[in-house]
Amino acid sequence: MQITSIETFLLHVPVTNGRIEDSTHLVTHWGAPGCIINTDAGIRGFGYTGTHGHLALDRILCQYVLGVYAPLLEGEDPLEIQRLWSKLALFPPSVWTGRHGISRLALSCVDLALWDIKAKAAGQPLWKLLGGDHAKKIEAYNTDGGWLNWSEQRLVDDVRQSVEEGGFRGVKMKVGSEDGNRDLARLEAVRKVIGPAVKLMADANGRWDLPKALRIGRRLKDFDVGWIEEPLWYDDVAGHQALVQSIGTPVALGEQLDTLDQFERFLEARAVHFVQPDAVRLGGVTEWLQVADRALASRLPVVSHVGDMMQIHVQTAFAHPASNSLEYIPWLRGCFVEPATAKDGYFVRPELPGAGTEVTREALDLYGKPTQ
Ligand code: 0YR
Ligand code: MG
Predict the structure, then answer these.
(1) Annotation marks residue 305 as catalytic
(2) CATH 3.30.390.10 spans which residues of the chain?
(3) What is the per-residue pLDDT for 147?
(4) Which residues' Cβ are closer than 6 Å to ligand 1?
(5) How far apart are CA 279 and CA 276, in angstroms?
(6) d(CA 354, ligand 2 centre) in Å
(7) Average pLDDT of 360-365?
(8) Mean pLDDT over all residues of the chain?
(9) Is domain 128-347 classified as CATH 3.40.50.300?
């Protein structure tokens, strides 16, 4: 098989209620810049990443795929993913201009499209191609709620609905308010409404300094918080290590890390308990698998961050033994041929051949933006 051409696309899809906030981000649209890799076999591979919908940055991303990576891919065999991944990731002119950030996101678009081709060529969903487990149960916890810009009443109503109507066995809420006591009051209110059986996670999105994280972190066990996510600045390994040794609540992180090497530093330091790789911020499924294997070797659970809005991470969850639960955020669900679905608190196993990344024509028409 040969790659014949590469196209790019860009989706901007409104988030729930048009605006959400955590302690560091304000998001109105989820961005999905991506690419379609065409082959001489007629198979088309779809890959994309996830952004906060900044038009100029999203266009640079599309341009990176087209201008830098497409010429390196044309004429190549798309099934040789490891070789192509190295060819792109280690492309000599990009040594100083792009090993992280935009180049990594662009690499993930390409990598997902290549895995989509490989799985379609095999006539199997990706989880099966990777040797997954059809009988496995992937627990869904709801992340689309608990936003920091919501009042306590709205927060409480929302988690009640998630549990009673949505069937979720876990919810995540944002913390990292200016006033730490506001966070504690909201945690108390939420734990009260969901009762002791439902899992409760808290996400500070990198907002606290170590003293604040220690003060609030020590209180989290009062509300049986399952993990505190990104308590400190993203790449502060020593800070997380100190925190882990001082509070009783487990620490989760990984959504801002974009290489295996960064994960290795946290794992070596034992500064993380729940490992949260995101295939669309790392260099795709290829590097996600490396991180997940590394976590497995440390006997730590993998709970992916879903910048892809679940499509690829449902596949990797069914594929990988360390990954048994996943966050639920439905913002992009309407865009895919086989949308990721949770039912009665568990993810439904994908059945169509491919990586689950194929976008519908209708979604491209409805949410598509010009890529330059
Ligand atoms: C805005 N998930 C997160 C929102 C999310 C953010 O980016 O989706 O809160 O990335 O922390 O765990
Ligand atoms: Mg998070």
Answers:
(1) yes
(2) 3-124+361-367
(3) 94
(4) 22, 25, 27, 143, 203, 205, 255, 305
(5) 10
(6) 27
(7) 98
(8) 97
(9) no
Residue 340 pLDDT > 90: yes
What spatial distance separates the first Cα and last Cα of the chain, rounded to whole Å?
30
Is 90 exceeded by the pLDDT of residue 247? Answer: yes
Count the residues in the chain: 372
Q: How far is the CA of 15 from the centre of ligand 2 (A)?
A: 16
Tens-place pLDDT, residues 185-237:
999 999 999 999 999 999 999 999 999 999 999 999 999 999 999 999 999 99
- The CATH code belonging to domain 3-124+361-367 is 3.30.390.10
Q: Is 212 a catalytic residue?
A: no
CATH 3.20.20.120 location in the chain: 128-347
Distance in angstroms (rounded) separating the CA atoms of residues 211 and 245? 14
Q: Which of 118, 305, 313, 320 is catalytic?
A: 305
